[in-house]
Amino acid sequence: MKIVRADVIVTCPGRNFVTLKIVTDEGVHGIGDATLNGRELAVASYLKDHVCPLLIGRDPGCIEDTWQYLYKGAYWRRGPVTMTAIAAVDMALWDILGKVTGMPLYKLLGGASRESVMVYGHATGRDIPEALDRYAEHIEAGYQAIRIQCGVPNMRSVYGVSKGSGMYEPATKGAVEEQSWSSEKYLDFVPKLFEAVRDKFGFDTHLLHDVHHRLTPIEAARLGKSIEPYRLFWMEDPTPAENQAGFRLIREHTVTPIAVGEVFNSIWDCKQLIEEQLIDYIRATLTHAGGITHLRRIADFASLYQVRTGCHGPSDLSPVCMGAALHFDLWVPNFGVQEYMGFPQEALDVFPHAWRFERGTMHPGEAPGHGVDIDEAAAARYPYDPAYLPVARLEDGTLWNW
Ligand code: CS2
Ligand code: MG
Question: Looking at the chain, which residues constitute the CATH 3.30.390.10 domain(s)?
Fold first, then answer.
């Protein structure tokens, strides 16, 4: 079997997604997610101009060799654009392998390690009462794990809170939004949010929160220590993780579990965090961390140190990533939790899928491959619409971590 076509499809059903479609000479096709929020066209070009021509004529069954060819063959290794492009190829080739063998992806990986996949949803509010209402709705929907984010008094804007009633989407069309941030106001406020959740709902649900890279290590240590009575499932991205050793400072002060990794794109970004057990969950995801072939290596390495997976799964990764991730989650022995924000209906119409949601858990389904396809006619109805992630500034104007 040979690859005869490799097409890049950019579509915007509710938000921009980039999809790679690989077709073989036997008419079997596979698709992969290549979406990088705010830099979609960079990955589309990397694929169209530099990768797709190299795929023509290759055996789609040589998944590992293709991964190594694209990783080592580029000379310039790693980085979000490169690894997202490689991930899309990898996801599409695993999809083809599943279709050719008639096996769902999780069975190709080694079979199910659990009945279904526990997912966490997003409860957000402009203030504590509104956030608690959304939290109650998630409990009602059967979620066992719920992330909570809330506006901070006297702060103009904050990460993770929808502006209106719709789904939270960080990227904005037109100019790059500038948000302001005050760690002091946040640190004084956020323990009150978790206290309110536990006072109202008790400890029966897993409570998660995303700090979103905004604190210094010692501030993150202070936060972790201050919220220990509320027993979070994890505090996510407490500080930027380029300096992996910086997490030793957090670990010295608090037992609040830590999740990091959604911005990582290779095992090298997290090797020290894992082997020194500086984190408890690795958030790297299929689309940005080199696909099934590489994320499997990261997860296996993490299992040596009792670090579990907690894959990133926002609505700005496509339903293709979601479907493939659920297969990965069903198999991976050191599974923790899977993020699931949901998708607008127009996105679900463009990407028919086999997964199902049932009271806080999901299952990828039994379709061969990853069980997600793309309706190209529907995709063509939603042309690319440029949108960019915000930046954050401290109240004195210093550019900060968004
Ligand atoms: C967030 C993301 O879901 C999360 O944990 O960190 O929403 C992140 O802000 C976006 O994926 C960025 O595009
Ligand atoms: Mg996050």
Answer: 3-104
Give the other-Cβ count within 10 Å of 342's Cβ.
Answer: 16
Q: Which residue has the tokens 């956020």?
A: 190
Q: Which atom of ligand 1 is nearest to the CA of 341?
A: 3
Ligand 1 pocket, Cβ-based, cut-off 6 angstroms: 37, 170, 210, 212, 262, 312, 314, 316, 339, 389
pTM summary value: 0.98
Count the Cβ atoms, other than its own, within 10 Å of residue 55.
22
Among protein residues, the one whose CA lies closest to atom 13 of ligand 1: 37
Block residue for tokens 């009575």 = 229
The fold adopted by the segment(s) 108-367 is TIM Barrel (3.20.20)
Q: How high is the pLDDT of residue 166?
A: 66
CATH number of the domain located at residue range(s) 3-104 in this protein? 3.30.390.10
Coil, strand or helix: which one is 1? coil
User: In the chain, what are the helix, strand and coil shares in percent, each to the nearest 5?
Assistant: 40, 20, 45
